[in-house]
Design brief:
Elements: E1 8-12, E2 16-17, E3 21-24, E4 31-35, E5 42-50, E6 54-64, H1 92-111, E7 119-121, E8 134-135, E9 138-139, E10 150-155, E11 161-164, E12 171-172, H2 182-185, E13 197-204, E14 211-217, E15 232-236, E16 244-248, E17 252-257, E18 260-265, H3 276-288, E19 295-299, H4 305-314, E20 319-324, H5 327-336, E21 343-347, H6 350-356, E22 364-367, H7 376-382, E23 391-396, H8 399-410, E24 415-423, E25 432-438
Parallel strand pairs: 4-6, 7-24, 14-15, 19-20, 19-22, 20-21, 22-23
Antiparallel strand pairs: 1-5, 2-3, 3-4, 5-6, 8-9, 10-11, 10-13, 11-12, 13-14, 15-16, 17-18, 23-25, 24-25
Helix pairs in contact: 1-8, 3-4, 6-7
Length: about 450
């Protein structure tokens, strides 16, 4: 049977797949990847895309529902609407089971490893948490909502700021985004028009409550944003330009994590869940077990979070070296590490810095790469015995590239010890993992 776009078919959803899908395997047709379904459900699904090997679809009617199904809190989390949330139709505990299944699936497929996985809730999203509870002085909504401290709204031709439909450039007028942090919602960016702009982005500093708005221009003159109640307003010269020019206020926010404040530029990376920086830093430290005198590398160090928590542990007799490509993040990291004379930051792409040499042998390393995972040169470096690295903490937001890289490292003699997974992105298919690996001959407690 050949599917046609727009056709409605009856299927039974099977296992979850990476990306927020369930896989249906009809006897008379190709595999169908279905959104808005849950494993075991019988649904009517509208075909949205057809390739030579598979079809994609949206569940438009539930004929036999899973006991894990709930009514999505957002009216836009339905077929044909906003693509930002993948699992609002599943209860939070069920969402975490789905994410755990994806991680297990990817480890088995990409690394040949069978591992039981538990996806842990972050503070503020656990069962029994009260709406309006706090983490680091940050207000929370009900569990799973109100957590996202950075949101970018696309702007359509009529000036409406909204979110894109799934696998589409179409902009949906969502009004209030329920997973956005309340401090972002209070800016009311979606209730005003942004003619001449391509996007408007808002972020709030965890702990400090400072807010910034970043406006990216379109083809025309654009809109003044100076009236906004944000602490800072910044503008990009061009839509894809990483450089930001302050229109009002300063170019960075203060964020509080692991008992101290961090300077983080508005355009630099920082975890978007208010509790994530604390939880991930604790997981990295527990896995690496740094000692005084250790040499540690922080690859893809961003604003220096992991380097900053390792530095006091290795002490003046040790060394911490961060490597980061983004100009603003390098400035932030150097500022955040300024009290530790034994910590320094190299500017440059990680693989380029490794290629030109100059890094000392190190016992410990932490890597928090982009979604694409480790560059092959980085895997080769970690797998070279002469570099001395015997313990690695790998922080990843993508189970597929994490599993791929774990497979490459175990193929070079490394051993996967602990692997913790955290629900740092409730309602979406995304999940954050911390894998602890050791070089051959070193056991992990």
């Amino acid at each position: 049977m050949d599917y046609q776009i727009g056709q409605v078919v009856e299927v039974t959803a099977g296992d979850v797949a990476h990306g927020g899908w369930c896989v249906a395997r009809p006897v008379d047709g190709p595999v169908v990847f279905v959104r808005h379904a849950l494993p075991g459900e019988r649904v009517l699904a509208r075909i949205t895309e057809v390739t030579t090997r598979l079809a994609r679809a949206e569940a438009v009617q539930i004929l036999a529902a899973s006991p894990d199904r709930v009514t999505p809190p957002c009216r836009h989390a339905v077929p044909g609407a906003c693509g930002g949330c993948d699992w609002q139709h599943a209860a939070l505990p069920a969402q975490r089971l789905l994410k755990a299944a994806v991680i297990r699936q990817q480890l088995r497929r990409m690394a040949g490893l069978d591992r039981e996985i538990t996806v842990e809730a972050l503070p503020g999203d656990e069962a029994g948490d009260e709406p309006g509870g706090k983490h680091g002085d940050e207000p929370c909504d009900e569990p799973g909502l109100g957590w996202r401290t950075r949101v970018q709204f696309a702007v359509r031709e009529d000036g409406v700021a909204g979110l894109r439909a799934h696998r589409s450039h179409r902009v949906i007028d969502v009004g209030q985004c329920l997973i956005a942090h309340r401090a972002i919602t209070d800016l009311e960016l979606t209730s005003q028009r942004w003619p001449g702009e391509t996007s408007v982005e808002a972020l709030v500093g965890t702990g400090s409550g400072e807010r910034a708005v970043i406006v990216s221009p379109g083809r025309s003159a654009g809109t003044s944003a100076e009236h906004l109640a944000a602490d800072a307003v910044l503008r990009r010269a061009r839509p894809q330009d990483h450089r930001l020019t302050p229109v009002r206020g300063r170019g960075y926010l203060s964020r509080h994590a692991v008992g101290r404040d961090w300077r983080v530029s508005a355009g630099a990376f920082w975890q978007v869940h208010p509790a994530a920086a604390d939880v991930l830093a604790d997981a990295v430290l527990a896995g690496l077990e740094a000692r005084p005198g250790d040499v540690a590398l922080d690859l893809y160090c961003g604003a220096g979070l992991f380097a900053g928590v390792l530095a006091p542990l290795v002490g003046p007799s040790g060394t911490v070296i961060g490597v980061e490509a983004d100009d603003a993040a390098v400035r932030d990291a150097r500022h955040n590490l300024r009290e530790y004379s034994w910590a320094r930051v190299h500017k440059g792409d990680v693989k380029a810095v490794l290629r030109r040499g100059g890094l000392p042998p190190a016992r410990l390393a932490v890597a928090d790469p982009p979604r694409s995972g480790l560059a092959r040169e980085v895997v080769d470096y970690l797998g070279t015995a002469g570099n001395g690295i015997s313990r690695l903490a790998y922080v990843s937001c993508d189970p597929a590239t994490l599993a791929r890289d774990i497979g490459l490292l175990t193929g070079r003699g490394w051993t996967l010890g602990g692997l913790r997974a955290f629900d740092a992105f409730p309602m979406t298919h995304h999940v954050e993992c911390v894998a602890i690996l050791s070089a051959a001959g070193l056991s992990i407690g």
